[in-house]
Every structure is written in C-alpha cells, then in structure tokens.
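Collaborator request, handled under Task 6.
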Amino acid sequence: MPLSPLPPDSPVPLVLGSASPARLKTLRSAGVEPIVLVSEVDEDLVVAEALERHGPIEPADIALLLARAKAEDVTTRTESPALVLGCDSVLELDGQIHGKPADAEEAGARWRRMRGRSGVLHTGHWLVDDRDSGGATLGATASTTVYFAQVSDAEIDAYVATGEPLRVAGAFTIDGLGGPFVAGIEGDHHNVVGLSLPLLRDLLADAGVGWFDVVNR
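Structure tokens returned to the collaborator:
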C-alpha cells in the first residue's frame, strides 16, 4: 500500500502492522490516525524456527519476537517513508503462553483454568524507522498482571458463545464483553488492550521522534 507524500511540517506517518480494532482504537483515542497495513507473518512458523535455533524462550520474548517479525514484514511492503509499528500479545499462565484459542472448546477450558487466578499479559512492541537507511529499529515488551474474576461455568459458556474470546490473545478483553470478568490489573491498562501508549512514547523518543510528532487528529 503506497503512502501519500506529506509536506515537511506534517505529522510523521505511523503504519500499524496489525488488524486489531482495539489497537487502532487505542491510537485514535490518543490522537494518532495510523495507516493500517496488516502483516502476513506465519506466527507459528516464526516461533518454531526461533525455538529450534535458541531453545526455550521466555513468554515476554515470544511476544517481542512476533512483534518484530510483523514490523519487519510490513516495512518491506511500505512504499513511502514512515514509522512502522508491530505488536503482538500473549497471556502467560503457569509459565505457558496462550494466544488466540483455536476453538470454543479451548476457550472454555482456558477460562476454567484462569478464573479466580491471575496471569500476565505481555505485549511486544517493535518500531522500525523506515524514513531513511539509517533509521532506528528497536522494541520492548510491556507486561501487565491481570486478575480474573471467579466466574461460573454458565458465565464462561455464555461468554465463549459470543465468539469474542476466539478473536483475542488470552481469550479475554478488558474493553469489551470480557470486561466484567477482569477483577483488576497491575500495570498499564492500555497494554491489556494490546498497545501500551507509554511504551510507544518511549520507543518513539529513543528513535528521536516526539509524541506530538505523530499526533494527527
């Protein structure tokens, strides 16, 4: 997708390499209207190859690995200078990582394990400055502890039947139908939605870009 040329005093264009409506909404609410260009990364393949090369990988690093793969994939398909942001979220529970459930049965089983307990939602962020050949490429992971309510079997079944848990990492949302089942969090609430605004601001600063350089709404 070609990006339209912008005059020198215009905001720096930001490309979001994600199909997540929640990430897009988070950026828009903060005054950033990104260009959306969804990555074509095979996540399972990326993780499998990394495990084969490096052995066991921490959950937070898995999220960062996938975020980087997405950002780099999208960067190869942008035709005009821009900042490219890739993100990926995984839920860590009992030392294991969980992305989107494969089906309703898996979503229900996962909720029966999560209820009344806590997990850590890791979101990897990778930023590529594609505006010149020497641009920055850097990333970091934000981690937020999520406390789940002691929900009943009937509530789990009804929630899974909505289809929402199948569309999101960890099988829950905090800003949607799953909100009533999240009893509390420790950390950045934006991160649970899938994009940490404070972390993005830090990454932009490290790349020499001010927050209001990308605000365009």
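The cover message to the collaborator said: "The longest strand covers residues 118-129. DSSP finds eight helices and seven strands in the chain. Please let us know whether this matches your experimental observations."
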